[in-house]
Design goal:
It is a single chain. With about 300 residues, the chain is an alpha/beta fold. The protein folds into two domains: about 5-95 and about 285-300, Rossmann fold; about 100-275, 3-Layer(aba) Sandwich (Rossmann fold). Helices cover about 30% and strands about 15% of the residues. The longest helix is centred in the last third of the chain and has 19 residues, at about 285-300. The chain is globular and about 70 Å long. The chain starts with a strand and ends in a 10-residue tail after the last helix. Bound molecules: 2-keto-D-gluconic acid (8YV). 2-keto-D-gluconic acid (8YV) binds near residues 11, 49, 51 and 280.
């Protein structure tokens, strides 16, 4: 019997995935670089999440690595130049998580604008019988600015139209397939226009702290910020100051700069809704993502084209 190909899992994969993948491959859960030992030389494939990527110290320890299959769409924590230099192929789970991530963006927007989580805490604390309940704000007619107009940004736009919102976007270039949405080449101008600014950009150096104090000021005291992209896109200290000082009205955050660490300053704020990076985490989508991670690996080791290649 041919020996199985060794695959290193940086993040744990669901049990169903292990069962599938366990057939042609031998799986190893990564714990630390130090404990890799002689296994390191046998590893030919890596699976990882978009948030974890493949840190260079691990990549550098795997001399026979041939393919990285990402259980997500983010590739900001993978050194693409090094992949090309070492001829390492890269595939992502693009296409199958778009709708869920867009739903999360809309969910966070509805939650923070309508005060849903805040009022849930109010009811649970038994305050309803003796304290006045604050009003929230309406969604209808609000202006939605979307930063990053790839598949996820466009799916957010589509949903926002059902709420009678006006939609415009910022992107590195104007999109040819969506002439119905106004394009703002300057994020600050979009932030000034928008009531709600949703971040759907890719992570990495280009978008690092793209939303800083000046963009929050442009969003203004009636503005809301929603982030389903990467924590690195937002200057968290500036955001905390803006929420505390009410120089923006609220925020909905699925992602943070140092996950799973979340700055404690957020905990006591009622104008922010926090999620532990759950946008793609539904049973259905995680199953489809796992399937794609598996199918890309299987295709590669069978000498077939990758289904969703990046490199
Ligand atoms: C996942 C993500 O939560 O797609 C991405 O880049 O960050 C998320 O969809 C992550 O990949 C799962 O580990």
């Amino acid at each position: 019997m041919a020996s199985k190909t060794d695959i290193l899992m940086i993040d744990p994969m669901p049990e169903s995935f292990n069962e599938q993948l366990g057939t042609p491959f031998r799986l190893h859960q990564f714990t630390s670089v130090e404990t890799l030992g002689t296994l390191a030389e046998r590893i030919e494939g890596v699976t990882t999440g978009g948030g974890s990527g493949l840190p260079r110290p691990i990549m550098d320890r795997l001399p026979n690595l041939k393919i990285i299959s990402v259980n997500g769409v983010g590739i900001d924590k993978i050194d693409l130049d090094e992949c090309r230099r070492r001829n390492i192929r890269l595939a992502t789970a693009q296409g199958v998580l778009t709708e869920d991530v867009a739903d999360m963006a809309i969910g966070l927007m509805l939650d923070v604008v309508r005060g849903i989580s805040c009022n849930d805490r109010f009811v649970r604390a038994g305050k309803w019988s003796h304290e006045p309940v604050a009003n929230s704000w309406t969604i209808k007619g609000k202006k939605l600015g979307i930063a990053g107009f790839g598949a996820i940004g466009k799916a957010v736009a589509k949903r926002a139209l059902a709420f009678d919102m006006a939609v415009a976007y910022f992107s590195s270039r104007q999109q040819t397939d969506t002439p119905e949405y106004p394009f703002y080449p300057d994020l600050r101008v979009l932030a000034e226009w928008a009531d709600v600014l949703v971040l759907c950009v890719s992570g990495g150096a280009r978008s690092y702290h793209m939303v800083d104090q000046s963009i929050l000021e442009a969003l203004g005291a009636e503005g809301f910020l929603i982030n389903v992209a990467r924590g690195s896109v937002v200057d968290e200290a500036a955001l905390i100051a803006a929420l505390q000082g009410h120089t923006i009205r609220g925020a909905g955050l699925d992602v943070f700069a140092e996950e799973p660490h979340v700055p404690e300053a957020f905990y006591s704020l009622d104008n922010v809704v926090l999620q532990p990076h759950r946008a793609s985490a539904t049973f259905e989508t995680r199953h489809a993502m796992g399937r794609l991670v598996f199918d890309n690996l299987a295709a590669f080791f069978q000498g077939k084209p990758l289904l969703t290649p990046v490199i």
